[in-house]
Specification:
Blueprint lengths: L2 H13 L4 E4 L15 E5 L9 E7 L2 E10 L6 E4 L8 E3 L4 E9 L5 E3 L3 H12 L4 H11 L6
């Protein structure tokens, strides 16, 4: 079964109101989500706000789990950026936000929320540190093996 088919089935379940735990790949959400190690909990994408992490389709069968960094008032487009990215954003329509990521589940099964006040505060600080992310991530990779993918 291909990744696209799995994602489409997960989205179908989410639309039916089922909470789905889904493994993630890649490094675009480091340090908050570690691809290849963590899974995310997907829920219906109700009441989206800046700072929420979402599963979005940004092109035909091109999916990302990234954080909302802006919502354009004039056309409602959602601006996304991975926490592990230095720069570069994606955008999609509200309809292409397929699920909201509410929790991260690590390899030991520990579940932590992404939407507490503390987590949202850390995400805001991390966003402001964009010019320094490359250096910080390089140090994290050397010091802590969980970031070395």
């Amino acid at each position: 079964m291909t990744d696209d088919v799995i994602i489409q089935e997960a989205v179908r379940l989410v639309q039916d109101g089922v909470s789905v735990t889904f493994p993630v790949k890649g490094r675009s959400m480091i340090p908050f989500i570690i691809g290849g190690r963590d899974s995310v909990v997907l829920q219906k994408p109700d009441d989206l706000k800046i700072g929420h992490v979402v599963l979005a389709e940004i092109g035909p069968e091109r999916y990302v789990v990234h954080r909302i960094i802006g919502i354009q008032q004039d056309n409602g487009r959602i601006i996304l950026m991975g926490d592990g990215n230095i720069r570069g954003t994606e955008s999609c329509s509200r309809e292409n936000v397929l699920a909201r990521v509410t929790h991260v589940v690590d390899q030991d099964g520990h579940r932590s929320t992404l939407e507490s006040g503390w987590q949202m505060f850390k995400a805001r600080i991390w966003y402001m540190m964009r010019p320094f992310r490359r250096i910080i991530l390089a140090v994290l990779r050397r010091v802590n093996k969980k970031y070395a993918i």
